[in-house]
Write a structure and sequence with these properties.
The structure holds 3 protein chains of 3 kinds.
Chain A: H1 2-15, H2 36-46, H3 50-65, H4 80-89, H5 102-111, H6 115-121, H7 130-142, E1 147-150, H8 151-154, H9 160-166, H10 177-185, E2 190-194, E3 204-205, E4 220-225, E5 230-236, E6 247-248, E7 251-256, E8 261-268, E9 275-276, E10 279-284, E11 289-296, E12 301-304, E13 307-310, E14 316-325, E15 330-339, E16 345-354, E17 359-368, E18 375-385, E19 391-395, E20 398-400, E21 405-415, H11 418-425, H12 431-442, H13 444-447, H14 452-466
Parallel strand pairs in A: 2-4, 3-5, 4-7, 5-8, 6-9, 7-10, 8-11, 9-12, 10-13, 11-14, 12-15, 13-15, 14-16, 15-17, 16-18, 17-19, 17-20, 18-21
Antiparallel strand pairs in A: 1-2
Chain B: E1 4-13, E2 16-26, E3 31-35, H1 42-50, E4 55-64, E5 67-68, H2 74-80, E6 82-85, E7 92-96, H3 97-109, H4 115-128, E8 139-140, H5 146-160, E9 164-168, H6 176-193, E10 196-201, E11 214-219, E12 222-227, H7 230-238, H8 241-248
Parallel strand pairs in B: 3-10, 3-11, 6-9, 9-10
Antiparallel strand pairs in B: 1-2, 1-4, 4-5, 7-8, 11-12
Helix pairs in contact in B: 3-5, 5-6
Chain C: E1 2-6, E2 22-26, E3 31-32, E4 48-51, H1 54-61, H2 69-77, E5 83-87, E6 94-101, E7 107-116, E8 121-130, E9 141-150, E10 155-164, E11 169-178, E12 183-190, E13 195-204, E14 210-219, E15 224-233, E16 239-248, E17 253-262, E18 270-279, E19 285-294, E20 300-308, H3 312-319, H4 325-341, H5 348-360
The chains are: A alpha/beta, B alpha/beta, C alpha/beta.
């Protein structure tokens, strides 16, 4: 009881500015940043096995010692104190609907999101009834032997060993500062295991598991697709997700076994106060195929580079992505690939749009190892500038250590052609709609790869962005 | 009152005057032809009527159905019933031919377009123009040959049903069969809509099977002669030589 | 030895790639070279070569070079006083030939400033050569700095041709600034040496100015080549074109950073960067970072890179015309570099370079 009251006091104080206390009492000071205490508390709430608790503490240590990278958008607006509090009190920390920014509410309105869903997305109130849909999907695929469950409970279940072998081995906490942070405070997320030879017909969606408590900010997704299996997983949704604690430091680890195929699609539209530092990595064995489809529309700041290790011979990767940077946004996205096996290939196709002072950066890395004989890579990035207040930078890099490789790269930057706008207008389409159409057309290569309802959502998002909504 | 009334129109492009004192009127359902040597300014007239940015009206007026077009943007002019078949249609990647036209109809009529009946109309028009049905799903003009692009323009005209269609060098780049097919399309438009036509051309092939009301000859930005369909025969026989001399006078 | 940081990427990226910059090892005793012989080499036409005047130093120092501040400081601290080539306004078509001889085992710095008057037209060839015997090589370093100021409508063509012995290190730091409608052409041939740094930056300040650069390189043995090229578009309607054609053999290493930077205000500008690199052996290391930075809507920027082996199609085509595979391969590789060399004005040097290419390559 006493603990709870103390906890509530903490929340209150963290949400408002400190004012002079006329009664002369001592203030309770919130510790800045993360402490061992907080991490241990999280661990206890999660009922972690010992190894996970030890792991979290190790990650905290690494986090404290690691510097932020000297490139990319600035992260000054990140308030670690608030985040620490959020981590500790996630369960009780609800936003009041009245506090949700107007802009967010408007977007819900314009995207036609049902009211109950809105509250869930805004971190307000009760669970979203997508829980029901989630359960139904689970049952359907369980019949095929597919495991689709939340990661926290899976750690203690029959797959505990499998998880322990894989958890943060692909993305070690030493990878970068926010990988370490993630390792220390991760919570929530999915575990998916697809057995040998199983083709999962329907896409699994992380959206089913969205609820007020988790809000997905430190989610860990671990997907293992066994030999010859096939899965499409969709993360995120087009509706903006809002939270006062503005960091998303998630982690996605994907294991694609021999001859297996995994398609991982993301539409991300975090609210525009968010810092999106999500790390996604896949490792692909012989004859395996990894496909990334990515639409980034939200966040104030993004560092997002889905990366793939083409370990097995004849493994392949395809990345199709679009990033839309509007006012107040600095989105730094791209892809990374390491080609290790023989006869590997990858195709990276990225599009980027910048408007209203937004900053969009495409950043990539293609590394071809000494033994990656007959490696083939084709990279193309196209950027559209919609005005002169914005910025669009393209910074690709290739490091090739063998001569038996065929690497091609091309990039273009330009503006919406006046002729194209006039042409559309001459058919009766008003100017703003004409521009939106051209931008949608520009994004077509990405929306083609998404399931229909996501493609429609994405196009709606583009229309919204283009109309200045 | 004529459908289109152009009065003493002068137009400059890149600060250079291209059209001088053009006066021309086209009545409902009439077919006019604008001919002239290359560089006369024919396309300029078409693009000015459509309201292309960069084409500056220096003097004169353009009235469409009694309404002054000057302040109207291109999309408003389209809604008013003007259509331009471009000489070099732009490629619009990511937008399919079918959905583009459907969207345009929606914009112009303000009414949602019923999918099924639209698709039937689209298929019928494509067949009339001997266009492969697969083009409906292809990105607008992307990778289309010159001839296919022109057909796609006429296809749009048939489905948008404008009151005045301006065809800018529609027959250039088309083989004999294609010209015939396009002519059929143009005839179908005339019949179904009683649409007015301004056909801009420097060759007479497309005119062979059409009924023409008036012919205007444009040389160095001025209309040097206006007459009836017999002018076409004269051009065929003697070319533009004498009119160029007229223009210099 | 002092290590200085050069060829810094205008916008840094992932550190693990280690492409953000490069280290140049400079021997302690590095000193200005004696290029007074240049004075006597001028053609007619009113051109002059003289020592730099105090009042001019700042002006030229403000022109940014491709290798960066640390390289500038190196020259200052070593007490280098650049020679100034003055090209009078309106003078046209002169070619200035300046030899740069690497001295055995020594570390030397050469510096040239080109002041091209309005409407002038000049070609400046830097013939960089020298053999090195024995193992005194490690201490040998030849550094060249060139700064060009092109006034309105001026045309300057700078042609550094490097044919050093395989044990000599060298670096070239070039900076240029263009006024309205001025054009700077750069033709760089990097054919020998044990390792080098090339830095070139052209600031297109004046409206409708342009930068046209072609670089041909052949790196072999254990040599390492590090390049940083930047086209900074400031003025409207400016144009840049940077082409890199190269061949890597044996255990060669090469890093190429090419940046097209569209600054706000450079509307209607066009930038094009192309890289074409041939890898002849399995032990080479190739790194490419083609960058476009853009803060202006109305521009057209593009870059392309192809890295790999000889096109089998091309070899087959030549064989079908009677060439043996070997001949075909040799010709294709040489053609790459000869296409850059064809920008050297006809004359002895061009002939020598073509001979060198035919003899040494493939």
């Amino acid at each position: 009881m006493a603990d709870n009251r103390q906890a509530v006091q903490d929340i209150d104080r963290s949400l408002y500015d400190f004012k002079d206390d006329e009664s002369g009492q001592e203030f309770y000071r919130i510790e800045e940043g993360l402490t061992e205490d907080i991490v241990l508390q999280v661990s206890e709430e999660k009922n972690d096995p010992d190894w996970m608790r030890e792991f979290r503490l190790k990650c905290l240590g690494i986090y404290d010692q690691t510097e932020m990278v000297p490139w990319g958008p600035a992260i000054d607006g990140l308030d670690m104190g608030r985040i620490a509090t959020y981590v500790r009190h996630k369960g009780e920390m609800k936003t009041d609907w009245a506090d949700v920014p107007e802009e967010i509410k408007n977007t819900f309105e314009r995207l036609g999101i049902p009211q109950a869903e809105r509250e869930s997305l805004a971190g307000v109130g009760a669970q979203y009834d997508s829980e029901l849909v989630y359960h139904n999907v689970r049952e359907e695929v369980a019949a095929q032997g597919v495991v689709y469950t939340d990661l926290e409970s899976a750690i203690r279940g029959e797959y505990a060993e499998m998880i322990r072998e894989h958890f943060m081995h692909l993305v070690p906490p030493t990878d970068h500062k926010f990988a370490a942070l993630h390792g220390a405070v991760w919570s929530g997320g999915s575990f998916v295991y697809v057995p040998k030879g199983v083709k999962v017909e329907i896409p699994l969606q992380s959206y089913f598991r969205l609820n007020a408590k988790g809000a997905g900010q430190f989610e860990h997704t671990l997907i293992i697709v066994d030999e010859g299996a096939d899965l499409h997983f969709i993360e995120g949704c087009s509706a903006p997700k809002y939270n006062v604690a503005n960091l998303h430091a998630g982690c996605v680890e994907l294991y694609v076994a021999k001859k297996a195929r995994l398609r991982y699609s993301t539409i991300e539209n975090w609210s525009k106060n968010m810092y999106n530092l999500n790390t996604k990595r896949a490792i692909v064995e012989e004859d395996g195929v990894m496909e990334w489809v990515s639409g980034s529309f939200g966040s104030a700041v993004s560092f997002l580079y889905p990366s793939t290790i083409l370990k097995g011979d004849r493994s392949r990767m395809e990345y199709t992505g679009i990033t839309f940077s509007g006012a107040g946004q600095n989105l730094d996205t791209g892809a990374k690939v390491v080609m290790q096996g023989e006869d590997t290939s990858c195709v990276i196709s990225s599009k980027s749009i910048a408007k209203d002072g937004g900053i969009g950066t495409y950043r990539s890395s293609v590394i071809v190892g000494k033994n990656a004989r007959r490696a083939k890579a084709s990279i193309s990035c196209d950027s559209l500038m919609l005005d002169s207040r914005s910025r669009s930078d393209t910074i690709p890099a290739m490091d090739i250590r063998t001569n038996d490789a065929d690497i091609g790269h091309e990039a273009r930057i330009g503006r919406i052609s006046d002729e194209a706008v006039f042409y559309l207008m001459s058919r009766g389409i008003p100017e703003a709609d004409a521009r939106a159409m051209i931008v949608s057309g520009f994004a077509d290569s990405v929306s083609k790869e998404l399931p229909l309802e996501y493609a429609v959502e994405m196009n709606n998002l583009i229309k919204l962005e283009m109309s200045g909504g | 009152m004529a459908l289109l009334e152009i009065n003493d129109l002068s137009v400059a492009v890149n600060e250079k005057r291209i059209l001088q004192g053009i006066t021309l009127s086209i009545g409902e359902g009439e077919t006019h032809v604008l001919m002239g040597p290359n560089g006369a300014g024919k396309s300029t007239l078409g693009l000015s009527l459509m309201g292309s940015p960069g084409y500056v009206r220096e003097s004169g007026t353009i009235l469409f159905d009694g309404q002054d077009l000057t302040e109207l943007s291109a999309d408003k002019r389209a809604k008013a019933g003007i259509f331009l078949s471009f000489q070099n249609p732009i490629e619009v990647p990511g937008v399919s031919l079918s959905s583009f036209i459907r969207n345009a109809i929606h914009e112009q009529t303000g009414q949602p377009v019923k999918l099924f009946s639209y698709q039937k109309k689209l298929a019928a028009a494509m067949e009339l123009l001997s266009m492969d049905p697969s083009y409906a799903d292809r990105d607008l003009n992307v990778g289309f040959s010159g001839g296919e692009k022109k057909k796609a323009e006429i296809l749009q005209m048939l489905l948008l049903q404008p009151r005045l269609a301006i065809l800018d060098e529609t027959d250039s780049g088309l083989d004999v069969d294609a010209v015939r097919t396009v002519s059929q399309g143009v005839e179908a438009y005339q019949e179904s809509r009683n649409g007015a036509l301004l056909i801009i051309t420097h060759s007479t092939r497309i005119l062979e099977s059409l009924h023409v009301d008036r012919v205007h000859i444009l040389v160095k930005g001025r209309i040097v002669r206006t007459g009836d369909a017999s002018l076409i025969e004269e051009i065929n026989r003697n070319g533009f030589e004498q009119f160029i001399q007229d223009g210099d006078r | 030895m002092n290590a200085i940081q050069v060829n810094t990427l205008p916008s840094p990226t992932y550190r693990f790639l280690r492409v953000n910059d490069s280290i140049l090892e400079v021997p302690g005793g590095i000193a200005p070279a004696d290029d007074s012989a240049w004075k006597g080499l001028l053609p007619a036409g009113g051109l002059s070569i003289r020592e730099i005047r105090e009042a001019e130093t700042d002006g030229f120092a403000k022109i940014a070079g491709g290798m960066g501040d640390a390289a500038d400081r190196l020259f200052q601290e070593a007490g280098v006083r650049p020679w100034v080539l003055g090209v009078p306004a309106g003078s046209s078509g002169e070619t200035v030939y300046l030899p740069v001889k690497a001295a055995g085992g020594r570390a030397q710095l050469h510096a040239l400033c080109v002041e091209a008057g309005e409407g002038s037209d000049v070609t400046v060839i830097l013939d960089i050569s020298g053999e090195e015997a024995g193992c005194a090589a490690a201490k040998g370093l030849t550094g060249i700095s060139v700064r060009i100021r092109a006034a309105q409508d001026a045309k300057v063509h700078l042609i550094p041709v490097q044919r050093l012995g395989s044990t000599i290190r060298h670096f070239e730091d070039i900076g240029a600034v263009c006024a309205e409608r001025a054009c700077v052409r750069l033709t760089t041939l990097c054919l020998g040496g044990s390792g080098g740094h090339l830095g070139a930056k052209c600031t297109l300040a004046g409206e409708a100015s342009s930068f046209d650069s072609e670089t041909g390189y052949y790196v072999r043995g254990d040599a390492e080549l590090d390049i940083n090229a930047v086209a900074a578009h400031q003025g409207k309607q400016t144009d840049s074109r940077m082409i890199f054609r190269g061949v890597l053999a044996d255990r060669a290493k090469k890093t190429l950073r090419g940046t097209i930077d569209f600054l706000t205000g450079s509307s209607d500008s066009v930038g094009d960067e192309q890289e074409d690199t041939l890898l002849l052996s399995p032990d080479v290391e190739n790194r490419s970072v083609p960058v476009i930075l853009c803060a202006e809507e109305s521009v057209d920027g593009r870059h392309g890179a192809t890295v790999g082996q000889l096109s089998e199609d091309m070899v087959f085509y030549m064989c079908s015309r009677g060439y043996s595979k070997e001949q075909a391969r040799r010709l294709i590789v040489q053609a790459r570099l000869k296409s850059v060399a064809s920008r050297i004005p006809e004359g002895r040097l061009r002939w020598e370079v073509e001979q060198w290419i035919e003899r040494e390559i493939g």
